[in-house]
Structures are given as C-alpha cells and as structure tokens.
C-alpha cells in the first residue's frame, strides 16, 4: 500500500506536504471537533528542518550521555560530605510540569495511533514511511517534542543526587538508553515509533503525576504506587511484542513491497525493552513482594 493511498478519501484542505515533499493528512483537520483545541503552530507543522538538523549531528545524544554520567559522579562526590538539600517545592513543580506535558502529548498522539490502527493494516503501521502516517503535522510536532524531551528528563537525576537519595542502576540506565534509542529511531524514521511514543507519554503522565503528589505529600490513599510499576511493566511487555511483530514483517516482506525498518534499530528496541522488563520486574518483586514477606516474618517474630 503506497503512502498516497492513505490520502484517497481525505479532503484536499486536510492534505499537507512536508519539506521532503511527502504528503500527509493533518489529523486536526480531519476531526473538526478536536481541531478547536489545536493552536495555529501545531496545525500542518513541518518537522523536516529539525529532523535534518538532528540527522547531521549524531553525536549530540552521545555527548549528552557522557556529560550526564560525569555529572552524576561529580555531583555525588560534591554532596558526599555535605547535608542533603531540600528542594521539595522545585521538585514538585518539575514533576507537575512533566506530567502536564506528558498528558498533552498523550492527548495529541494517542488519537492518531487509534486512527491509524483502525484504518490501516498493522503491517502498514509498522512498515510504512512514518512521515506520511504520523511524523508530519500536529502529531509530528508532538512526536518530535517527545524525542527532544529526553534531554530535560535527565534532570530527574539531579534531584536524586542533591537530596542524597539512592541512585539505582535502573534509573540512570533507563535515562541513557532511552535518549540514545529515541534519537536513533527518530533520525532513521522508525515506523513503529508512534507505538512507543504513545505508551511512554501515557505512563509518564501518570508516573510524574504520582511523583508530584508525593512531593507535596498529597497522595490519595487509593493511589497505590504499585499501579505505576504495573503500567511500566505493561509498557515494556507491549514494547517487546511490537518489536517482535515488526521483525516478523521485516523478514517476511509482501511481494513488491519493502518494510521501512532498520534492522539494527529494531534489535536495539528488543534488547532495550527486554532489559527494561527484566529490571522493572526485579524492582517490582524487590519493592512490593519482598517487603511484604519481610513484614510477615516480622509479625511472626512478634
């Protein structure tokens, strides 16, 4: 199925063309009721100039990760002989900002994913050029913002260091690998990117919202933290499944059609999500199951 086929029944006024000459359907234009919530700069956004800028600078995420690791060690060394800072209010605002950003991102991208899955076969969603499916226009803007947001998210670790909280391997490993993978996926125009963007936006919307409530000490009793970890585990499980299906389509192309997947990117996604699932499962057992067992033993001793 050629990308132009997606535009067969699309009104002319809703068809845009990005800087690479690829035609796409502007999602906000297709849904008049939703379009009222879109700002002018979102509609028919052209991501190509930023995309090409990123493609010409592949070392930016690498150097960012190197600086990140160096600053972690430097920060921990600096704080070792000093009392922990108390920046709870700033931490609360930080988490609130990331939660609100993620909610908006989820609202902007999830409907596009639903539309694509209900209008086009799964193979097309995982194999066709993303510029025509979701990478341009208003959805393309929020996909691009998602990729770039992985840089400021590194500052999560700053609050852990200054408050002298334990910095677990899962935390910094997750930040580094997500940044590197997201950058590579975007500059190589990975078709499956929208699945990961929507899942991450949704999970982060809830996760950072939970962190905000914890920072201001207003977490409702019904908001069990196990819910956040279950969401994270579900995201990793689905991520592994998406990469497996994408790899199947890559190895079994339809006659006369190629799958727009980079093998190294898909393998990296499988390894990344697989390792995340293992680490989050380990965290889940250590935090919830092990604590429960410990509590039971203590009760028996008493």
Any overview of this molecule?
This protein is mostly helical. The chain has one domain (3-301). Helices cover 68% and strands 2% of the residues. A two-stranded antiparallel ribbon has the order 1-2. A hairpin with a 5-residue loop joins strand 1 (15-17) and strand 2. The N and C termini lie far apart (68 Å).
Count of beta strands: 2
The secondary structure category is: mainly alpha
Number of helices: 13
Instruction: Give the DSSP E fraction (strand runs of 2 or more residues).
Output: under 5%
Into how many domains do the coordinates divide? 1
**Strand neighbour order, sheet with most strands:** 1-2
What percentage of residues falls in helices of 4 or more residues?
Answer: 55-70%
* Unreliable runs: 297-302
Described by strand count, sense and barrel closure, the largest sheet is: 2 strands, antiparallel
Overall pLDDT confidence: 89
- Apparent shape: globular
Distance between the termini: 68 Å
- Calculate Rg over CA atoms: 21 Å
* Helix and strand sequence: EEHHHHHHHHHHHHH
């Amino acid at each position: 199925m050629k990308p132009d086929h997606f535009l067969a029944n699309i009104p002319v006024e809703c068809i845009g063309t990005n800087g690479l000459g690829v035609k796409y359907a502007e999602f906000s234009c297709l849904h008049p009721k939703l379009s009222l919530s879109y700002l002018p700069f979102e509609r028919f956004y052209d991501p190509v100039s930023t995309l090409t800028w990123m493609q010409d600078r592949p070392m930016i995420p690498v150097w960012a990760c190197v600086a990140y690791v160096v600053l972690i060690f430097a920060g921990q060394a600096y704080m070792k002989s000093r009392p922990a800072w108390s920046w709870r209010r700033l931490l609360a605002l930080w988490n609130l900002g990331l939660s609100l950003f993620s909610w908006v991102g989820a609202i902007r991208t999830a409907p596009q994913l639903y539309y694509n899955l209900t209008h086009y076969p799964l193979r097309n969603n995982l194999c066709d050029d993303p510029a025509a499916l979701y990478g341009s226009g208003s959805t393309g803007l929020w996909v691009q913002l998602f990729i770039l947001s992985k840089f400021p998210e590194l500052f999560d670790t700053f609050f852990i260091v200054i408050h002298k909280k334990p910095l677990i391997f899962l935390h910094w490993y997750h930040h580094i690998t997500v940044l590197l993978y997201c950058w590579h996926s975007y500059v190589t125009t990975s078709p499956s990117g929208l699945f990961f963007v929507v899942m991450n936006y949704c999970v982060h919307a809830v996760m950072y919202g939970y962190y905000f409530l914890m920072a201001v000490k207003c977490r409702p009793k019904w908001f069990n933290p196990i819910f956040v970890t279950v969401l994270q585990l579900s995201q990793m499980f689905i991520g592994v499944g998406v990469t497996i299906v994408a790899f199947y389509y890559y190895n079994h192309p339809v006659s006369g059609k190629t799958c727009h997947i980079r093998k190294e990117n898909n393998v990296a996604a499988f390894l990344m999500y697989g390792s995340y699932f293992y680490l989050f499962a380990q965290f889940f057992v250590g935090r919830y199951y092990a604590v429960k067992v410990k509590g039971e033993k203590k009760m028996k001793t008493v």
